[in-house]
Automatic annotation (TrEMBL):
Annotated membrane topology: Multi-pass membrane protein
The keyword RNA-binding appears for this protein: no
Organism (species): Micromonospora parva
Localization: Cell membrane
Superkingdom of this protein's organism: Bacteria
Keywords of the record: Cell membrane, Membrane, Transmembrane, Transmembrane helix
Protein name: MFS transporter
Length: 427
C-alpha cells in the first residue's frame, strides 16, 4: 500500500467493523478471566489437591490439541464468523451447567466433562479469531491490530480476576463460572453484528481429506525456517509453563497463606504486564527486529518464572508474574503476527492449527509434571527448574534463523519468504 493511501486511511480505532469485533472479544476475555481463576479454585476447594488441578488442566489441554488438528481445516473450509458464534454458544451452555450442578454439591467429575469440550470449542474459536484479523484489517496493520486486541484483552483481564476473586470469596467459585458463561452470550452477539472480508477458497483444497489439509499447514510450517524453529522451541516452552498458573495459585494459597481474593488480586494486577507487552510489541519489533524482540522476551520470561516460586511476599510474586506476562505477550504477538503476514489467506487456518497443535502437544504432560512436582517438592524447586528451561529456549533461538529475522516479513530476509497468493503448498 502506498504512503499516500496509508495516510488517507482512518485510524484503526475508528473502523466500525474492527471496533465491534474488538469490543465483543474484550467482553469475552473479561468473562474468561473468571473461569481462569474460578475453575482451579473450584477443584482446590473440593479436593485440596494441586495434582488434581494439574490433571484437569492436562485433560482440557489434550482436548484442545486434538481440536486444533481439525480446527484449521474447519476455519479454512467454512465461514469463520459462523464458527466463532457456534463456539461461543457451545461454551455458554456448557459453562452454565457447572453452577447449576454445584447446587447439589461439588461435582468435580462434571468439570472433567465440561472443560475439555469447552477447551476444544475454544481452540476452534481461537484459530478462527486469529485468521479473522487478516479479514478485518489490511496486512500492514496486522501487528497494530493484534497489539490493540491483546492490550484490551489484558485490560479486561486486569479487572476480571479482581472481581472473580471477590465473587469467589463472597459467593463461591461456581458463581464466578456463571459470569463467564454469560460473557459468551455477549461475545456471540457482537460477532453477529460484523461481517468479514471474503476468503479466497481453493476448490482443490476443499476436496481433500481433513488430514491431508492439516498436513498442508504442517508442511508450510516446516518449509519456513523461522516458523519451523519457532514451533520446535515453543513446544518446549509450553511444556515448561503450561501448568504455571496452577503452581502460582498453589504457591500463593499454600506457601504464602493467601485467600481466594488474594489470588484474584495477584492475577488481576499481574495482567497489567500483558497490557504493557501488547502496547510495547509493535515499536519494539520495528526498532529491534523480530529475532531480538522474541529472544529477549523469552529470556526475561525465564528469569521471571524462576523468581516467582522463591519470592516470599505477595507483592513480589505479583511483580514477577506481571513481568512474565508482559514478555509472554510480546513474544506471542510477534509470533502470531509473523504467521499472519507470510501465510496465504486460504491456508492461514491450517497453518495456525498446525502451529498450535504441535507446540501445545506437550503442554498437558507439562502441566501434570509441574503440578505433581510442586506438590511433592514445593513450588520454589519447580519454578527454578522451569525458569532455567525457559532460558535454554531463548538461548536456542540464537542458533536458529529466528536470530536473523528482521522487523518486517518481506522477501529477501533470511527465513521469511512469503508464499504465493494462490494455490496450495506442494507435497
Amino acid at each position: 500500500m502506498s504512503r499516500s493511501a496509508t495516510a488517507g486511511r482512518a485510524p484503526l480505532w475508528r473502523d466500525r467493523t474492527f471496533g465491534t469485533y474488538w469490543i465483543a472479544q474484550s467482553l469475552s476475555a473479561a468473562g474468561d478471566s473468571f473461569a481462569y481463576l474460578a475453575v482451579p479454585l473450584l477443584v482446590l476447594q473440593a479436593t485440596g489437591s494441586v495434582a488434581q488441578m494439574g490433571l484437569l488442566t492436562a485433560v482440557a489441554g489434550a482436548a484442545s490439541v486434538v481440536a486444533g488438528i481439525f480446527g484449521g481445516v474447519l476455519v479454512d473450509r467454512y465461514d469463520r464468523r459462523t464458527l466463532m458464534i457456534a463456539a461461543d454458544l457451545t461454551r455458554l451452555v456448557l459453562y452454565a451447567l457447572v453452577p447449576l450442578a454445584w447446587l447439589a454439591g461439588p461435582q468435580v467429575w462434571l468439570l472433567f466433562v465440561v472443560l475439555p469440550i469447552c477447551e476444544a470449542a475454544g481452540m476452534v474459536f481461537q484459530v478462527a479469531a486469529v485468521t479473522a484479523v487478516r479479514n478485518l484489517v489490511d496486512r500492514d496493520r496486522i501487528t497494530e491490530a493484534n497489539g490493540r486486541l491483546q492490550a484490551t484483552y489484558a485490560a479486561a483481564a486486569v479487572l476480571g480476576p479482581l472481581l472473580a476473586g471477590v465473587v469467589a470469596a463472597r459467593f463461591g467459585p461456581p458463581t464466578a463460572i456463571a459470569v463467564n458463561a454469560a460473557s459468551f452470550a455477549l461475545s456471540a452477539a457482537g460477532m453477529w453484528l460484523i461481517r468479514l472480508r471474503p476468503v479466497q477458497v481453493d476448490e482443490a483444497v476443499a476436496r481433500q481429506r481433513p488430514l491431508a489439509e492439516f498436513l498442508a499447514g504442517a508442511r508450510f510450517l516446516w518449509r519456513q525456517p523461522v516458523l519451523r524453529a519457532l514451533t520446535v522451541l515453543l513446544s518446549v516452552f509450553i511444556f515448561l509453563t503450561y501448568g504455571f498458573v496452577d503452581v502460582l495459585i498453589y504457591h500463593v494459597t499454600h506457601d504464602l497463606g493467601g485467600s481466594e481474593g488474594t489470588v484474584g488480586t495477584v492475577l488481576g494486577l499481574a495482567a497489567l504486564g500483558t497490557v504493557a507487552g501488547a502496547l510495547l510489541v509493535a515499536p519494539l519489533r520495528r526498532r529491534r527486529g523480530f529475532g531480538a524482540t522474541w529472544i529477549g522476551a523469552h529470556t526475561i520470561c525465564g528469569f521471571a518464572v524462576a523468581g516467582v516460586g522463591i519470592a516470599t511476599t505477595v507483592p513480589a510474586v505479583t511483580a514477577l508474574t506481571a513481568v512474565y506476562l508482559c514478555c509472554l505477550s510480546i513474544g506471542g504477538i510477534c509470533s502470531m503476527s509473523l504467521r499472519q503476514e507470510i501465510t496465504p489467506d486460504h491456508l492461514l487456518g491450517r497453518v495456525t492449527s498446525a502451529f498450535w497443535s504441535t507446540h501445545y502437544a506437550l503442554g498437558p504432560a507439562g502441566a501434570v509434571v509441574l503440578t505433581w512436582a510442586a506438590g511433592r517438592y514445593g513450588a520454589p524447586a519447580v519454578t527454578l527448574a522451569a525458569g532455567a528451561g525457559c532460558l535454554l529456549v531463548a538461548v536456542g533461538g540464537l542458533f536458529t534463523p529466528i536470530r536473523r529475522a528482521g522487523g518486517e516479513a518481506a522477501a529477501g530476509q533470511p527465513g521469511l519468504h512469503p508464499a504465493p497468493a494462490g494455490g496450495t503448498v506442494g507435497g
